[in-house]
Amino acid sequence: MFINTKKFAIGVGCAFALSVGTVTGAAADNGYGGPYGFGSVASAADIAKIDIDVMPDGRGAPPGQGTYEEGKVVYADTCAACHGEDMSKPVPGTGAAALRGGRGSLTSGAPNKTIESYWPYASTVFDFVKRAMPLHAPGSMTDDEIYAVVAYILAEGDIIGKDVVMNADMIGKVQMPNRNGFIADPRPDIFNYE
User: Fold this and answer.
1) Is cis: bond before 134, omega within 30 of 0?
2) For the chain, what are the domain ranges?
3) What is the C-alpha separation between 126 and 122, in angstroms, rounded?
4) What pLDDT digit, counting tens, does each position of 75-130 carry?
């Protein structure tokens, strides 16, 4: 199921605000986050720091670019210690997942969920790397490094050519092998990319 995270977050926030309002009654905001006296209202700059989602069609992708050759260096320096040199055999004890291989395995009884076999959108790869990698320092990679490592991973999995420059325009155009392997929630209030 795909969920529009912005609408989900707003819905959860509204539900939380309603429940707090019900519990606390009409307690006045003291300027420090309401009746509890801590926190502050998020500024546009605060929100921009975490509003980093990239939609399947590429909307939301930041400026920047990366190539296969650049990604090869970034991968060796940043990713190989956990995901392994060839991306199909993670380093034991790291808890890392394989990134390559597994095509056709999802219905085999022994699925191998990799970027190549499971992930429906290249934008999801970008988004995950930006938010969560490397494990010891999530969020430390530049957008150019992320584009480069995504280009490298996708090219090594024969999803794109080694000559493709990955950028905000290209990320939404990549045709992932499992792009049709998911059933999207058809409700317009949940699944609406327009």
Assistant:
1) yes
2) 5-50, 65-171
3) 6
4) 999 999 999 999 999 999 999 999 999 998 998 999 999 999 999 999 999 999 99
CB-based contacts of 9: which residues, under 8 Å, 6+ apart?
none
Spatial separation of the C-alpha atoms in residues 193 and 190, rounded to whole Å = 9
65-171: CATH homologous superfamily? Cytochrome c-like domain (1.10.760.10)
Q: Please spell the DSSP secondary structure of the chain, one letter per residue.
A: ----HHHHHHHHHHHHHHHHHHHHTTPPP-SSSGGGS---PPPHHHHHHH-----TTSTTPPS-EE-HHHHHHHIIIIIHHHH-TTSSSPPTTS-PPP-S--TT-TTSSS----TTTT---HHHHHHHHHHH-STTSTT-S-HHHHHHHHHHHHHHTTSS-TTPPEEHHHHTT---TTTTSSPPP--TTTS---
Contact 52, 64 (CB under 8 A): no
